[in-house]
Amino acid sequence: MAGIIGITGINQNKVAHDMLSKISHRGKNHNILLLKEGLTIGIASNDLGILCGEVKNTNFISLSNKTDSTSVKMENKKIILKRDRYGVEPLYYTYLDDNNIAFASEVKALNGFGTIIHELEPGFILDNGELKKYYELQKVEAIEIDQRETSIFIKETLTNAIVKRISDNSIGAWLSGGLDSSAISALVRPHVSMLHTFAAGFPDAEDLTFAKIVADHIGAHHHERIISFEDIIKALPNVIYHLESFDALLVRSSVMNYLVGQLASEYVDEVFSGEGGDELFAGYHYIKELPVAQIEDELIDITKRLHNTALQRVDRCSSAFGTNAHVPFIDNDMVDLAITIPVEQKLYKKTEKWILRLALVDVLPTEVLMRPKSKFWEGSGMGHHFYSYAEGLITDSDFKQERKIKCGWELNSKEELMYYRIFKEHFGEIENLDWMGRTKLVTTNGELSKA
Known about the structure:
Layout: E1 3-8, H1 13-21, E2 29-36, E3 39-45, E4 51-55, E5 58-62, E6 71-75, E7 78-82, E8 92-95, E9 101-104, E10 117-119, E11 124-127, E12 130-133, H2 147-163, E13 171-174, H3 179-188, E14 196-201, H4 206-218, E15 221-226, H5 229-243, H6 248-265, E16 270-272, H7 277-281, H8 292-304, H9 310-319, E17 324-326, H10 332-338, H11 343-346, H12 354-359, H13 366-369, H14 376-379, H15 385-393, H16 396-402, H17 414-427, E18 441-444, E19 447-450
Parallel strand pairs: 13-14, 13-16, 14-15, 16-17
Antiparallel strand pairs: 1-3, 1-9, 2-3, 4-5, 5-6, 6-7, 7-11, 8-9, 8-10, 11-12, 18-19
């Protein structure tokens, strides 16, 4: 996705250039735009959907051509920052003093100021220093309609979400062979002359097998990367630098995504991701154990948490290589539809994402359509490699001594400490980490795992 930096104040061109250099990976073109006196803005992009101009004496830059997009405006000498509804497009800010502000698509562009960094949360506007909420995802009353009719609506809405994101650029899709990425790949394929699909994993990873089945079924040009654990360890410092997180389960799931993103960047300018399907359609196993009355609240909660966890992973693992990522499950219309679907259709006879499977019956092979949910690092073959590696690297004494970090958080595991050490090398000991997301954890059969 494109990146943006901005800073208010006089003669800030040099500072703005330095900020922009730290997110230059987000696009091939880097431009400093002085919109108005006292505001310097920089853009890193591949010219994918960036909108900028002046309307009724209001200067604006929008990070995509969607109606609800992360954007920056300058109106009557006021700075107005807006984040999209669900946090697909990142935005952070920091107050330099009482009168000046700096903002950027990534924390690394702001880290050198020595000030407290804030995430502009999804659905919020920062208007001249005042936070205003313009949208909040909330539970709504389910609409009781026939399953078949619901499945038709899902397919139509998801297809529309995909079509409006397709451009004239080369198009690809990250394809794990799971239901969500397979659904997106299959629905993209009829609308492009060539679709490249990308998968990565260890030699015996089941994701590689299922991804190849889907790619052959839909007629995609498939690419796969066979990796070793040595490749993963080598990539870790770069992954954590781009991800800007040490959250153990987020880092673990990002490593393979990063390697897939690197592969994709060799062939395409834009990629589609299946992120968001689990949250909207009850894809996680632990949800089956919840009382039915609690499930919709839980789905709303985990969807609202996506912005600084899974959506951050998608953004960073694509933009690290200057690629633009699309997440059609988190299209506004798609989310609006999904929250009206009864829980009983999402989780039918203990089968997760039942209604989504029904919507895809004519586009996916049966073995993929009915494939159970597996964690990304399991499907790719990584299993418990990270845990074992950290256990061999960090002693019990080290973990006890280093577990509590400067901001007051306690690290959850030796694996997380391993990632934090790398994070600290890149960014130092940051005292306030309120901008950083932490994966919601649940305990299933005594095992701590991602929600």
